[in-house]
Specification:
Strand order of the largest sheet: 1-2-3-4-5-7-6
Distance between the termini: 49 Å
Low-confidence stretches: none
Structural class: alpha+beta
CATH topology: Aminopeptidase
Helix content: 25-40%
Length: about 210
């Protein structure tokens, strides 16, 4: 069965539906970090163009993605999810005037509608946004969904590199790599995530159409 999926900007009336999807999608990530309506409200208030949802023809919301514009200094500095997106109501990291980077904050798709290209469509919407805003890149902290099964055998960095070499398949990190993101380095204590053991790969996509600002 095929479904027509529309990617559009998120509105405040979508928030309750998106929060419900997040709860189903991320049961192993700490409650209170991504599940509060205020998280989405603040994103929409500050940067409405950077918030997306995936909607079926019947109006059902089946996915979402949030993002901010940031300036990291240095550009590959270590950070945590909380330092970028955790200060709800403040978002000191969002810097549309000086920022040159789109931060891929959160992305999710409904568990019943996975493997249908929804997350790829959301990633593509972010890429198009980065192009339209003439941003150098998209970055984010990914997930090592199956690292918990290998942690007694190797470091998180070794695991990431084995995924890159296709020696291990990871349903999240492998997908991010497939969508054109490159692995930069490992971020420890990025976000409470029992499957990733709080690690996150620093991932980056370079905008091929970026033009230096004058």
């Amino acid at each position: 069965m095929t479904f027509k999926v529309i990617i559009r900007n998120t509105s405040k009336k979508d928030i309750s539906k998106i929060v419900a999807i997040q709860r189903e999608s991320f049961p192993d990530v700490a409650d209170g970090m991504i599940y509060e309506p205020s998280f989405l409200e603040d994103h929409i208030n500050l940067f409405p163009e950077g918030q997306f949802c995936a909607e079926l023809e019947d109006g059902m919301i089946v996915g979402s993605a949030t993002s901010l514009i940031v300036l990291l200094d240095p550009k590959y500095c270590s950070h945590t999810w909380y330092s970028i997106a955790g200060n709800r109501g403040i978002f000191k990291s969002h810097d549309p005037k000086r920022g040159d980077t789109l931060y891929a904050d959160d992305i999710c798709s409904h568990p019943n509608f996975r493997r249908m290209g929804i997350a790829t469509k959301l990633f593509n919407a972010r890429k198009q946004l980065a192009i339209e805003f003439n941003l150098k890149r998209i970055i984010g902290g990914g997930r090592l969904y199956n690292y918990c099964e290998y942690a007694d055998k190797m470091s998180a960095d070794d695991y990431a590199n084995k995924v890159i070499k296709d020696e291990i398949y990871d349903p999240v990190f492998s997908f991010q790599l497939k969508n054109g993101f490159k692995y930069v380095k490992m971020l420890p204590e990025y976000l409470y995530d029992s499957r990733s053991l709080n690690y996150a790969p620093f991932i980056e996509w370079i905008n091929p159409k970026y033009h230096p600002r004058t």
